[in-house]
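FW: tagging you since you asked about this chain on Friday. Here's the raw sequence from the shared folder, copied in full. Didn't touch anything.
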Amino acid sequence: MALTLISTLIFAVLPAGWVEYPGSEIDSAEVIFYTQTLDADLCLRLCASNPVCSGANFNSHTGMCHFAQGHPRCRKLQPKSGSYFIAQQHCR
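HL: got it, structure written out here
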């Protein structure tokens, strides 16, 4: 299995059609659900298995996983150290 190294975290390969944005996070106003997973891969799997989740942000400092819904939500990406955003579509 190929791995992607992001900061000090290791993520499994993203599902087909998903893209990654290391060092970015979604605006908190776009969050529809959050949970503390402490594991970036679990955050990705939870979002990918949820039909309304179109993207997720994982924060390596807090272990928090935030889900976003819809598109083009990515337009509100903000730089954030320790954060990692994944989305089902490319952000523009």
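FW: The CA atoms of residues 30 and 79 lie 15 Å apart.
HL: agreed, and The longest strand covers residues 78-87.
FW: great, closing this out.
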